[in-house]
Specification:
The structure holds 2 protein chains of 2 kinds.
Chain A lengths: L4 H4 L3 H19 L5 H13 L4 E11 L2 E10 L5
Antiparallel strand pairs in A: 1-2
Chain B lengths: L2 E6 L7 H14 L4 E5 L7 H4 L10 H5 L5 H4 L1 E2 L6 E4 L12 H14 L2 E5 L8 H6 L3 E6 L3 H17 L1 H4 L5 E9 L1 H6 L5 H8 L2 E7 L3 H8 L10 H13 L17 H9 L1
Parallel strand pairs in B: 1-5, 1-6, 2-4, 2-5, 6-7, 7-8
Antiparallel strand pairs in B: 3-4
Helix pairs in contact in B: 1-12
Classes of the chains: A alpha+beta, B alpha/beta.
The structure holds adenosine-5'-diphosphate and magnesium ion.
């Protein structure tokens, strides 16, 4: 390494920390609702008793500090 | 009533078995009636680390299936009358673990012992949930290395989601042990420091254990490193054991290299 090389190159531990912070934040976010798939199945079963549906879509959102589950039930096209 | 400590990690090979063995000996030497249970079904290891591999007749499965009484399967540790060991079975079939059966075993152990250490399989293994279900506290072992730290965060997530206490709305205490610290690398900025790791994982520090050659010797001979008073890792495990027994033991800096002797530094100058 050149005399002032250390000024340019970030130490690897620092890079590890930065990368871990991002990776773990993403991991945590995707693991907040581990039951999501099961819930989706159950919602579909219930709604299907009353009307034909195409799909159930669940989106996780964060509005300011509030977590929101946005559940969208897409019905079968009934005009056909 | 005993306290159940599950010794966990995300990925394997970070030092759970080493930690379980040493902390069990350490707390037993502090006077706690202790049992250490190998829950890594199909990968029995703790018996060798404790030097008890020739003493295993019955294992955890025999007890859970009701083939033998608990006392018949508990193996005493020679160097401390307070310590007993319960072996894992070598069958690969992890379905032998059943929540009710595990529960009955843990209840029985809690009647007889102050401290129960569970040497868990890695967080990705199927037996993991059983090993943490009845935990009062999780001892999380990591190495200062990205994949170990990332995976440990997931393992902690499983404890928070799946353990009995969490499901009852209670808190499972979580303590971090950073194992295999290389002080030279930390000083050079090429290894994550304990401070960095605590920042990332946001759990309480229980102890820092340096990388130590004596650990290989210890596993070769079946005498865990805590019994070796020349070993820095052994001393670290002893400090952690005291902390687990409620003593306030200051954290020692294991991240600054020990001053090399004069001869060594001279040699370094010319190398
Ligand atoms: N502080 C340490 N210094 C040197 N080697 C270590 C240290 N801790 C663990 N090891 C070694 O790392 C390997 C894995 O340890 P082990 O306790 O079996 O991990 P796990 O139970 O998590 O799979 C073993 O060979 C052990 O001797
Ligand atoms: Mg192990």
């Amino acid at each position: 390494m050149s005399l002032f090389g250390f000024l340019k190159k970030k130490k690897s531990a620092k890079r590890a920390k930065d990368r871990l912070n991002v990776a773990i934040a993403l991991d945590r976010d995707s693991n907040v609702y581990p039951y999501l798939d099961q819930m989706k199945q159950e919602i579909m079963q219930i709604v299907q008793k009353y009307s034909k549906i195409k799909d159930v879509r669940i989106n996780k959102e964060k509005v300011e500090d509030q977590d929101i589950l946005d559940i969208e039930i897409v019905l079968e096209d009934s005009t056909r | 009533m005993g306290i159940v400590f599950s010794v966990i990690s995300g990925k394997g090979g970070v030092g759970k078995t080493t930690t379980s063995a040493n902390l069990a000996i350490g707390t037993a030497l502090q006077g706690k009636k202790t049992v250490v249970v190998d829950f890594d079904i199909g990968q029995r290891n703790l018996d060798m680390i404790l030097g008890l591999e020739n003493r295993v007749v019955y294992d955890i499965t025999h007890v859970m299936e009701g083939d033998v009484k608990l006392n018949q399967a508990l193996i005493p540790f020679k160097k401390s009358k307070n310590l007993y060991f319960l072996a894992a079975s070598q069958t690969k079939d992890k379905s032998v673990l059943d929540k009710e059966k595990v529960g009955r075993l843990i209840e029985e152990l809690k009647e007889e012992f102050d401290y129960i250490f569970i040497d868990a399989p890695a967080g990705i293994e199927s037996g993991f949930e059983h090993a943490v279900y009845y935990a009062d506290a999780a001892i999380v072992v990591v190495n200062p290395e990205v994949s170990s730290i990332r995976d440990s965060d997931r393992a902690i997530g499983i404890v928070d989601a799946k353990s009995k206490k969490s499901q009852e709305g209670k808190r499972v205490a979580k303590y971090l042990i950073i194992n295999r610290i290389n002080p030279e690398l930390v000083q050079k900025g090429e290894m994550l420091s304990s401070e960095d790791i605590l920042d990332i994982l946001e759990i309480d520090l229980l102890g820092k254990v340096p990388e130590d050659q004596f650990i290989i010797e210890a596993s070769n001979t079946g005498h865990p490193v805590i019994l070796n008073d020349r070993s820095e890792a052994g001393k670290a495990f002893e400090r952690i054991s005291r902390r687990l027994c409620g003593e306030e033991v200051p954290f020692v800096d294991v991240e600054t290299p020990k001053k090399a002797g004069l001869l060594k530094s001279i040699k370094k100058m010319f190398s």
